[in-house]
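hey can u run this one w/ inosinic acid bound, need the structure tokens asap thx
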Amino acid sequence: MKLGQQFLSGEQIRARAKELAAEIDKAYAGSAQPLVCVCVLRGAAIFYCDVIKHLKSEIRCEFVSVRSYDGMKACEPVLIQDTAIQKGAHVLVIEDIVDTGATAALMKKRFLAQGAASVKMCSMLGRKDGVADWIAYVIDTDKFFVGYGLDYNQKMRNIDGIYELIP
Ligand code: IMP
Ligand code: MG
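ok here u go:
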């Protein structure tokens, strides 16, 4: 395995996260209750902080942990650490990358079953447009990426930027 070309720099991602935070604020303006921002660990940890620190809305922070990849191979998402959402809450789930959308669907189902008033998704990367309400960068490729939270077998999450991983 080796690192390929840089796909996005940390600066680019942080700038986009700030833009998305402004859009998210607009969407929830006038909401009577705090917005529950759910971080999908571990991949979304860095991007989550980049987004929430720019939100002007009142928020609550929640964390769930999901495992959906084994090496470079996708598997059925499994909830490892869950969280309880207050009935009637508006929920914003923040993900690292939406690939098949299975993790996003699992989150949506879970929080709606807990009585959330709405569940929206924000993702750093999306392999298809329209799979989340806000996507920082849509990627039209099957390439595997690491860095900025994204891992290969738990490694390389701490790289300040996103790189292609070459098998
Ligand atoms: P989904 O459930 O198929 O949408 O998969 C989403 C999850 O797959 C993400 O949260 C990542 O953990 C993982 N994933 C998908 N593509 C990549 C990648 O290129 N690099 C690292 N993880 C990935
Ligand atoms: Mg992940």
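The chain has a mean pLDDT of 95. anyway lmk if its weird
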